[in-house]
Amino acid sequence: MCSHHGQHQRVISCRCTEVQVRSFLQPQLMLLLLKKSAHGYELMERLAQDAETPEADPGLLYRTLRQLEEDGLVRSAWDTEGRGPARRVYELTDEGLEYLHAWAVNIRKTRQRLDRFLAEYEAYFPAEKGGESNVL
């Protein structure tokens, strides 16, 4: 049974999936780092505060941070102060800020395309506006 369609879903497995924007972790991390420099574990905690955000895989999060650093969009330094082991603290670079602006432009364009698609879809299926579907 599909959690999106509820009980009216037939025994046949549903082909729908929860729509997610691919690679959205990059701009989310960059926006968090714009607000405040942080280490990886803190970034994971801050991402988890948003109930709409899927739980971040630690491996993916650290690979993404390394790639952003290799691309010059974030930089990191070891924080050896405080208790416990040293932690790498990440911050957004000027190039990262420019890239974040570009992400916002692209997200706006994508949102406009999605809004046009939904308007056309809802013209054919006006009862579907609430996101509930009676089709497989």
Q: What are the SSEs and their pairings?
A:
Blueprint: H1 25-35, E1 38-39, H2 40-48, H3 58-70, E2 74-79, E3 87-92, H4 94-124
Antiparallel strand pairs: 1-3, 2-3
Write up what this structure looks like:
The model is unreliable at 1-22 (pLDDT under 50). The protein contains four helices and three strands. It has helices spanning 25-35, 40-48, 58-70, 94-124, and strands at 38-39, 74-79, 87-92. The chain has a single domain, classed as Winged helix-like DNA-binding domain superfamily/Winged helix DNA-binding domain (Arc Repressor Mutant, subunit A). Helix 1 packs across helix 4 (94-124). Strand 2 (74-79) and strand 3 form a beta hairpin. It is elongated, with a radius of gyration of 20 Å. The chain starts with 24 loop residues before the first helix and ends in a 12-residue tail after the last helix. Helices cover 47% and strands 10% of the residues. Strands 1-3-2 form a three-stranded antiparallel β-sheet. By secondary structure, it is mostly helical.
The biggest sheet, with number of strands, parallel, antiparallel or mixed sense and barrel status, is: 3 strands, antiparallel
- Number of DSSP E strands: 3
Structure annotation, total helices: 4
Rg estimate, integer Å: 20 Å
Q: Structurally, how many domains make up the residues?
A: 1
Low-confidence stretches: 1-22
The coarse overall form would be: elongated
The CATH class designation is Mainly Alpha
Mean pLDDT: 82
Strand order in the largest sheet: 1-3-2
- Please identify the structural class as seen in this structure: mainly alpha
State the CATH superfamily name. Answer: Winged helix-like DNA-binding domain superfamily/Winged helix DNA-binding domain
* Amino-to-carboxy terminus distance: 11 Å
